[in-house]
Specification:
The chain is an alpha/beta fold. The protein has a single domain, classed as TIM Barrel. The chain is 35% helix and 13% strand. The protein contains 11 helices and 8 strands. The chain has an 8-stranded mixed beta sheet. Strand 5, helix 7 (181-190) and strand 6 (194-199) form a beta-alpha-beta unit. The longest helix is centred in the C-terminal third of the chain and has 17 residues, at 217-233. It is globular, with a radius of gyration of 18 Å. It starts with 9 loop residues before the first helix and ends in a 6-residue tail after the last helix. 43% of the residues are buried. Bound molecules: S-adenosylmethionine and iron/sulfur cluster (2 copies). One iron/sulfur cluster binds next to loops.
Length: 328
């Protein structure tokens, strides 16, 4: 699902950059954690406990970091990135410092008004990833933001109508939201939006309440089959690779033996400019001292960024990227 800012002929250029980065063992995806502060109250992530005083230590700009890595994709994340009033300046500077880097932002969406979305789009953001794990009040409860789901449902169609080219839901698969996966995909399709799935981990703060376990595998496999079936018939809505979706039950069953490539193809930079291999590992060195990580024996999560990095680059993946969702 490509942002409307790009045309299909841009895809080979992005693919060329991908190949160039892989050959040089450079990260393809750079996650810029522009703040760790957050105004949600999630039970499965403790970033919201970051004190307000942390703002004083946050980098004012991430331009040199983006230029140094010059990856294929840059994601502004956190914490809650929309808390940064200067996010537009950060985005524009990063846009100007990179070539063929696709810029996305992950947000809980609670403060994303149409005006803010337009101003971030105009600043150079290519894609909005809005977290959405349930279509009902469970999402508001899980995030501790009353009215959040209704707000997202109101804002996304208006963003699309305003010409904002790529909106995706970031949806975390948990044992208690499997019933929501197909309805969520249909809802996204009805709005011209996409869905990117990832899998719940307790590695963030030890909360095991949402973990998928052996007893959930049968229901999980059935949902995955339905998602793959949907994907075969409607390309462009579900943005994960078939490979990633198919591998999720294997991870839940503890059968994944491949080392984790986090830090090789993807890398995180925290608000102070320190590099870490993944969101759940502590920061290591300042970005200026960064040297490539090696794959590591760790199986604590199966985030999409881990699983997609393990996915083979097949033609179907290119078609996934190029397809645009048709409003159904
Ligand atoms: C850490 S958040 C930062 C961006 C923003 N605050 C948000 O929630 O969208 C990035 C993504 O991680 C996901 N996430 C948070 N806790 C998680 C967990 N324990 N397991 C899997 N994904 C998680 C969120 O749902 C979100 O899509
Ligand atoms: S998942 Fe996002 S919204 Fe929830 S506490 Fe973490 S950073 Fe905040
Ligand atoms: S499996 Fe990889 S991405 Fe997940 S916690 Fe371990 S090192 Fe990090």
């Amino acid at each position: 699902m490509l942002s409307s800012r790009y045309k299909p002929w841009h895809v080979p250029l992005f693919m060329g950059k991908y190949a160039w980065l892989r050959v040089r063992q450079r990260p393809v995806l750079l996650n810029l954690e522009v703040t760790m502060r957050c105004n949600a109250r999630c039970g499965f992530c403790d970033y919201w406990k970051t004190p307000a005083s942390a703002k004083a230590d946050e980098l004012k700009e991430f331009t040199d970091i983006a230029r140094r890595f010059n990856p294929m994709m840059i994601t502004f994340t956190g914490g809650e990135p929309t808390l940064r009033r200067d996010l537009e300046d950060i985005v524009t500077a990063v846009r100007d410092a990179t070539t063929f880097s696709y810029l996305a932002m992950i947000t809980h969406g609670g403060m994303l008004t149409l005006d803010r979305a337009k101003s971030l789009w105009d600043a150079g953001l290519d894609q909005f990833n809005i977290s959405l794990d349930y279509l009902d009040g469970r999402h508001d409860d899980a995030r501790g933001i009353p009215g959040l789901t209704a707000k997202i449902m109101d804002t996304v169609p208006r963003m699309k109508a305003a010409g904002i080219g790529s909106v995706r839901f970031n949806t975390v698969l948990k044992h208690d939201n499997l019933d929501q996966m197909l309805p969520l995909v249909h809802k996204a399709a009805s709005m011209g939006a996409g869905v990117n799935f990832s899998v719940y981990t307790d590695a963030k703060n030890g909360n095991e309440n949402h973990l998928l376990r052996d007893q959930h595998v049968r229901a999980l496999e059935s949902v995955i089959d339905q998602l793959l079936e949907y994907k075969r018939k409607n390309r462009g809505v579900i943005t994960n690779s078939d490979h990633y979706l198919s591998e999720i039950p294997r991870w839940v069953k503890g059968l994944m033996t491949a080392p984790c490539p986090s830090g090789t193809t993807t890398v995180h930079v925290d608000p102070q400019g320190k590099v870490r291999r993944c969101p759940d590992f502590p920061p290591d060195v300042d970005w200026k001292q960064w040297t490539p990580y090696a794959a590591i024996k760790c199986d604590d999560c199966f985030y999409a960024c881990r699983g997609e990095a393990q996915a083979p680059m097949r033609l179907s993946r290119v078609l996934d990227v190029m397809a645009s969702p048709k409003i159904t």
